[in-house]
Structure formats: structure tokens, C-alpha cells
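USER:
Make up one protein:

ASSISTANT:
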Amino acid sequence: MTRTGAKYDAIIIGAGAAGLMAAGRAAARGAHVLVIDHNSEPGKKILISGGGRCNFTNVQAGFGVHPPRYLSANPHFAKSALGRFEPQDFIAMVDSAGIAWHEKTLGQLFCDGSARQIVALLMEQCAGVAFRFGAPVDEVRHDGADFAVRVAGETLFASRLVLACGGPSIPKLGASDFAYRSARQFDLKIIEPRPALVPLTLGGDDLLFRELSGVSTEVVATAGEGKAKGVFREAALLTHRGLSGPAILQISSYWRKGEAISLDFLPDDAAAAWLLASKAAQPNGSLAKLLADKLPQRLAQALAEKLGAADKPLHALTDKALDQMGQRLNRWRFTPNGSEGYAKAEVTIGGIATDGLNQKTLEAKHLPGLHVIGEAVDVTGWLGGYNFQWAWASGAAVGDVI
């Protein structure tokens, strides 16, 4: 690369949530900023989020909430950025723009209207920022003095380079591993990335549930062990390929291939005791009919059949058998054979290792001027606005120093 192109204070690669936040904050401080994105318009992932209404944050997304809502090899890394830019800070931006919003379950905030309002807000904040859309980056490097970025045959320079181009989730939007490749080039380590917030697929005996595609019920879903254990009470959805719904998307971040997950189909009951009491009260009742009082009928019938007791009266079942059935209903184990992959994953877990980054500025410790923000970093939030809050917070942290 030769020094023929324009020079900026910072070049940000990626016009998503984190990149736009960083650009707007930096421009407000007078920085000369260029944002480059291979897509034809900004905020592609924002636009499809929340069913087109953008679940833009969560009132519980602050780092002090327990249990922690963010996963990382260093669970404390995100504390600095999240503590300095909290959900109320972004809500204030939304309110100042006159964007109406509402709170749904579990602290999730959505626009009343369109996700395009959030993109418009961010772009308004980016007054003075230069943009290049539909411009894939051909090469990045550090020439000893500045960062050099080649795009569309032209070489551009900047004192600072910000990788804000996310991970490989949702490739139909152009997502790729560009951030990881660039990070490796600059000697930053990568924590093995994998799809997260993604439906899980089933095979073998579990295919019994394929015929129940479309059935949804509230469960307590569990995956992982010890500190890496996730437990969520939300809806699970049975699909033709396996399991989905909020509870499953949540535990997918904790699940590893080859491991089992468990679903509690009767989260409000100690199922064994309930079955034994039901036997005493309704000896001629059937398990399928009992379960149908608490679960969708098709699911109740399928579970009873799987337990081998669909049509037997309760009095024909031993107390030991009912106890075992109850234990299973409270902890029904599945062993997924995989997930639906990056194509359906809302985010990527893993990514650029935090041990090579400054916690406050997200700057590479060994290469001043190189910053990494948003999904590209090994910080992954729960479903429900947490990942957007990390994008805003990490973008703000970098925008305030470039």
C-alpha cells in the first residue's frame, strides 16, 4: 500500500449498532471519522431485530444484575463499558428522538413502531461522519505509523482502526469472519466462536417430537454445569427439526455439542408428588388426561406415550413407576445433535479474546490505536436486548477516546 489516500482520525469497519454508536460519539468530539461497510445501508441487523421493532435494550442489562447476563472467558471484562453506558443512557437517546417504546416480558424494550427509527437516530448522531457503503475491505494493515485500509482500489489511512464488523451469525446479511481474520493478523487471540441464541436440532429417539411441530409450552430449560450452567424459565417451541423458542435460544449459549439438556415440563409442580396425589384422588384417571390439564393436549399425549402410560388408569401404575415418571417430567433429557448454525443464530459466542484488550478502551494492549467492539469481542449477552446494550456500551467506550 502506498500513501496516496485520505487520512482520518479513525476508520471504523462496520456500520452496525456498535460501529454507529462509536462513530457518533467520536464525531461529537470533533474526530474525523470514516465508517466502511460492505452492505448497501447501515444497521442491517438492527432492522431485522425484534421482529422489525428492535429490542434495543433491557432494563436488567446493567452489569451489577445477578446472575450475570453476559458470557465471556473473562466474565468481568464487560463491567467497565456497561457501567459507564447503562440502559437508561440509551433510553434517554431514544426519548430525545421522540421514539415511542414499550416494555415486554423480562425487561425487554421495543420500539412501538419500526427498527428504522433506531437506525435513523444513530445516523442523526453521526452528523459529520463520512460513510462508504457497498464497499468491502480488501486489506488492512499497520504501516508502522498509521493503519492502512484498502477499499475499492483506494488506500485510506487513520491513526485508529475500529473493528466493529461483528461475527459470522446471519450470513444472509453479509456477516463473515472478517473481524477474526483481521484480529489474527494483528496478533490478537480468538476464543473459539460458535453459534449462540440459536435453535437446537434433534435426532434418534427424540424425533418423536417432530410431529408436534408448532407446539409451545413454558418450561425450565437447563444446559451446562457449574459456573457455565444456564437455567431459564421461558417458552420452548417444538419444531420439525428440534427445539426453539426463548428458553432454548437462551440455553444454546451454554450448550456444547455432545452434552444433554433438560426441560422441566411441569415447572410449577413436584411432578412425582402430584402424580401420586392424583392417583389417590382419581385412580381411574389417565396420565395423558392429567397432563392435558397443564400442557397442550398434543404434547400431553406424546409425553404420556413416551412414558408408556398413555391409556393406563393411574391405579394400574405402581407408586414407583409414577415417581420415576414424575422425575422425568421435571427433568426430561434431550441430547441435541447440533444447532441450526450461524444461519439462524442471533449472535456468535466467543470471538476476539478479551485478555488482549484494555477493559476501559477496548484497545489492543500491544498495538495502540486498534480497537474491537460489539459482537466481534468475546462478550455475549442473553436474549432480550442484552447484546444491543453491549454494542451501545462498547461503542460508546471507544467513541469517547478516538
